[in-house]
Amino acid sequence: MRCYPICKLPGRVMGIRLLHFSSVVILVLLLVAGALTALLPNIKDDKMPNLRREPKSQSQSALDSFTLIMQTYNRTDLLLKLLNHYQAIPHLHKVIVVWNNVGEKIPEETWNSLGPHPVPVVFKVQTVNRMRNRLQIFPELETKAVLMMDDDTLISAHDLAFAFSVWQQFPDQIVGFVPRKHISTPSGIYSYGSFELQTPGFGNGDQYSMILIGAAFFHSGYLEHFQKELEAVHALIDETQNCDDIAMNFLVAKHIGKSSGVFVKPVDIRNLEKETNSGYSGMWHRAEHLLQRSYCLNKLVNIYDGMPLKYSNIMVSQFGFPNYANHKNKM
Amino acid sequence: MRCYPICKLPGRVMGIRLLHFSSVVILVLLLVAGALTALLPNIKDDKMPNLRREPKSQSQSALDSFTLIMQTYNRTDLLLKLLNHYQAIPHLHKVIVVWNNVGEKIPEETWNSLGPHPVPVVFKVQTVNRMRNRLQIFPELETKAVLMMDDDTLISAHDLAFAFSVWQQFPDQIVGFVPRKHISTPSGIYSYGSFELQTPGFGNGDQYSMILIGAAFFHSGYLEHFQKELEAVHALIDETQNCDDIAMNFLVAKHIGKSSGVFVKPVDIRNLEKETNSGYSGMWHRAEHLLQRSYCLNKLVNIYDGMPLKYSNIMVSQFGFPNYANHKNKM
Questions:
Q1: Is the separation of the CB atoms in B189 and B225 below 8 Å?
Q2: Interface test with B, best of A315, A323, A324 (most B CBs within 10 A)
Q3: Which residues cross the membrane (chains A, B) (predicted)?
Q4: Residue A202 CB: number of other CB atoms within 10 A?
Q5: How many helices (H) and strands (E) does chain B have?
Q6: Structural domains in chain B, sorted by start
Q7: Which of these, A94, A85, A89, A83, lies nearest to A55 by C-alpha position?
């Protein structure tokens, strides 16, 4: 039997040494078990949410997510209502609130006290109440895609998720939910309108030549383009406190040489302006609003030395949603 | 008075010479007037159409027009009905009828006796009744765009004009009216179906991964691609007398690395097969038709060593047609 040198020890001494050895082994095993237990993930108690959970949207790739930019003036109640909705939209990276309530405190305390929130929300305090504040280049903007929303517009998550996927296929265009058009008249003067305005007359149906940016996705690069626009464009927007969206469509159409936008037909879009307590009802109710927009068209044509807007009649919807077979035919 | 040499002549002689001169002038004027009258365009008499009017579609650019390729078997009555409709579609360059009625005379005499026709129609006599006959490279095909139609399908001119304009924006894809999809199962075996088949499960709504070529526009270059396909693909189509459209979608998807097709929702599409006198009801009524198509999917995946089909949920409609405001919202 090979047990040298242990075997040479007397039986009693060997017994005690064996006991010591076993104790050491057991202790080591307990320590190892303890270490392993410490490495196991914590079992979350449903009743006690982890307040320190790291917001997972931070890890979303800048290519697969978008930033919501929402400018707000005198409708903080609507803003907070909308933030509760929009903060949970899939693929949202961050929200940037452009705070046009000059001199008024941002609701950051309220916001934080009602946390945690799925995504970070940044309040950008403005020193002047300007329409084009929302078209600045914000350092907090990290994604290629921007979702720009007016502070009184509610669009369903389904619509936004679908429209974002469409934007990803047409990243150089403004992909959104509100189409408008220009028409030319025999005098060469342009006029602005929606579907009630006569069609450009290309055949059947209607055409659109702009997608309004108050409910649309577009590439963040266009914000840089916009900042480099001629001073005359900025002055026009400041003069009218209007038309920043028309200017953006001119910019994009000129840049890509085709229709500036792609219209996605929304399933569920709502205007909440009647629900505000502030009584403030939005710029588009001003008597001169539409006339201003026709005015802007013609001014921009002067500045651009031509009409770059192009017509499109493509209307995009989501296949099989919301109706199980919204494409069914008698065939 | 300066009138030498005329003034030197006696009065009577001068009178006669003046008369001669005037006559000559009048004669010349009459001749000129006559010549001008001959150059005036003929006033067309509405009751007597000019039988020798040159078909104006011949001058249509190969880029702005398309060729209709329609394969036909045992439904000549439907064929002729459809030809009357399709011959007048805007932007149509020519019609190629793939005559699968082997041994039967083409209706060329009937066709000519009922002329003139807006576009040329060519009957291509086939020696074997094969499904993939329609995917040959016909020398008469001059346009970049092909419209392929089954011989029992009637689609409105509005739909076709719109879909053609959509194809021009997506020329590398199959732009058509009939979407289908594949789904994968836990076993790795694929199955084929329409909207009743479970969705691929990407979120809301449905997806499609194929556009059937029996009612679609695609680039004529894909016919050349198809001819160069592996013999196994041709053999599969010949074996099943089916699946040429699935094979085309595999080809296109592999080639462009994205969804093979774009679905255009038709406003007015009709299947006329019940109206035929022949009693022939089409391949898709065979009991094994759908199972064959699942079979083809899996065979093609073997041949392609992978599944190249990609899903899409983009559904395209024409803005403002047929309803004046088919995009109107509560907003």
A1: no
A2: A315
A3: 18-43
A4: 11
A5: 8, 13
A6: 66-316 (3.90.550.10)
A7: A94
Q: Given the residues B64, B77, B245, B305, select the one marked as catalytic.
A: B245
Contact B208/A319, CB-based, under 8 Å? yes
Nearest CA-CA distance, residue A274 and chain B, Å: 11
Cα separation, A5 vs A12, whole angstroms: 15
Give, in order, the Cα–Cα distances in Å from A169 to each of A173, A218, B142, B260. Answer: 9, 12, 31, 14
pLDDT at residue A267 greater than cutoff 70: yes
Residue B181: list chain A partners with CB under 8 A. Answer: none
Q: What is the mean pLDDT of chain B?
A: 87
Q: Report the C-alpha gap between A161 and A147 in whole angstroms.
A: 11
B85-116 core/surface letters (b: 16 or more CB in 10 A; e: else):
ebbebebbbbbbbbbbbeeeebbeeeeeeeee
The amino acid at B208: Y
Residue A331, chain B, CB below 8 Å: the answer is yes
Query: Looking at the partner chain, which of A208, A266, A329 has a beta carbon nearest the beta carbon of B269?
Result: A329
Contact B313 A165 (CB under 8 A): yes
Q: Is A257 on the interface with B (CB under 8 A)?
A: no
ipTM for the whole predicted complex goes beyond 0.85: no
Residue B44 is predicted with a pLDDT of 41
- β-pairing, B174-176 vs B261-264, is parallel
A329 inside 8 A of chain B by CB: yes
Residue B330 has pLDDT above 90, yes or no: no
Interatomic CA distance for residues A167 and A147, integer angstroms: 10
> Which one-letter DSSP state was computed for residue A152?
T
Question: In sequence order, what are the residues at sequence separation of 6 or more whose Cβ sits closer than 8 angstroms to the Cβ of residue B326?
Answer: A315, B317, B319, B320
Contact (CB<8Å) B313/A195: no
Cross-chain residue pair B195–A325, CB shorter than 8 Å: yes
Structural tokens at position B228:
């160069």
- pLDDT single digits (tens) B30-85: 776 666 666 654 444 433 334 444 444 445 667 799 999 999 999 999 999 999 99
Percentage of chain A modeled with pLDDT above 90: 68
Q: What is the pTM of this model?
A: 0.81
Higher pLDDT, B279 or A65: A65
User: How far does Cα A304 stand from its chain's mean position?
Assistant: 30
Note the pLDDT tens digit of each residue in A129-184.
999 999 999 999 999 999 999 999 999 999 999 999 999 999 999 999 999 999 99
pLDDT in tens, B205-259: 999 999 999 999 999 999 999 999 999 999 999 999 999 999 999 999 999 999 9
| pLDDT score at B322 | 84
Q: B204 and A327 in contact by Cβ < 8 A?
A: no
* Rg value, chain B, Cα: 31
Please list the residues that pair with B72 across neighbouring strands: B99
